[in-house]
Amino acid sequence: MTSDPAERAGSDRSKSRQDRARAFVPELILEPEDLDRVGPLDPKEQKQLGYIHEARDNYHTARWIRGKALEAAFRRRLFRGEDGQRTRQEYLNDEWDGMSESAAYLEIGEWRLAAQIAKEFGRPAPDSHIRALVNVAKAQGLEEVTSWYVELRQHGAKTKQRVTAAVVERLADFLTTGGTGEIDGLFAPQLPPPRKETTAPAGDDQAHGDDAPFQNLGTDDSSTSRDAADKEVEATPSSTGAASTSDGQELPALGALRAALGALFEVYEALAPEQVAQARAEDEEEAGSLLVQVVGLAKDVGERAGQR
């Protein structure tokens, strides 16, 4: 038994901290197992589901708290260490698992918006949503952007529409351009206009016009997938424009899918290692932010394509 009053007080404080954090300890999440249950949740199951949702929200909250902690360490110069000589990057190497300074500044730039949304919406927003809106918030203010985001989430819940990263990206564009219209329009993706076809001169074996999205694909012998894609387009040059049947009947939805495929290959080209390296050399912070958004949107695209 602890006899020293200071030790007992320290022990009591430790227990208090454990109690406050108890909602988020892994032990409160039951082990995953297959159960054959149907019908409404009973009170015990509702409590179990509540713990799951608390764990979810704790993850997102921890993310913005990290950003606040990093900013405090940087601005108060607490990173300098006991000898006063440690640099920011050396501090990140020692205490933050080698995080780069650019990644740290990304989290620093995001935490205020994340905290404001959590306060106004009542729960944290996903990282991809914060990243989509952070630059708009810097320009138009936290409260304005948060108000729009909360309205978007409430409208999505009311109309049973998913608020994906792509939807939030459209909100960012909407706010940046001073857009008008109903908020419901942000849930409907704007399809790109059909690309104009360029008729190749007689005897020219180039199957694409100068503005075709696949023109430079297939030049790398190691990229067999892009070679195959190039051949696919050569066989169906109308893939960059509106689709139609042999009797001239237009097929707009199919044409839109073909245009989307063309856009995806443009993205694929832009993400070539040398292109990414050049982008990082031009602006490391913005390139990192854009790449994170690309990954988030790619996940949404994959999910939507899988719902066929």
Report on the structure:
The chain is mainly α. The protein has two domains: 44-187, no CATH class; 224-302, no CATH class. Helices cover 60% and strands 1% of the residues. The chain has helices at 5-21, 43-75, 88-95, 101-121, 127-140, 142-159, 165-176, 224-235, 252-270, 273-282, 284-305; strands spanning 243-244, 250-251. A two-stranded antiparallel ribbon has the order 1-2. It starts with a helix and ends with a helix.
Number of domains: 2
Low-confidence stretches: 5-23, 197-241
Helix content: 55-70%
Biggest sheet: strands side by side, in what order?
Answer: 1-2
Gross morphology? globular
Mean pLDDT: 75
Q: How many E strands?
A: 2
Give me the secondary-structure category. mainly alpha
Order of helices and strands: HHHHHHHHEEHHH
The N- to C-terminal Cα distance equals 65 Å
Put simply, the count of helices is 11
Largest sheet: 2 strands, antiparallel
Percentage beta strand = under 5%
Rg over C-alpha atoms, rounded to the nearest angstrom: 26 Å
Structure summary:
The chain has helices at 5-21, 43-75, 88-95, 101-121, 127-140, 142-159, 165-176, 224-235, 252-270, 273-282, 284-305, and strands at residues 243-244, 250-251. By secondary structure, the protein is mainly alpha-helical.
Features:
11 helices; mainly alpha; two-stranded antiparallel ribbon; 2 domains; 1% strand; 308 residues
Element layout with pairings:
Layout: H1 5-21, H2 43-75, H3 88-95, H4 101-121, H5 127-140, H6 142-159, H7 165-176, H8 224-235, E1 243-244, E2 250-251, H9 252-270, H10 273-282, H11 284-305
Antiparallel strand pairs: 1-2
Helix pairs in contact: 2-4, 4-5, 4-6, 4-11, 5-6, 5-7, 10-11
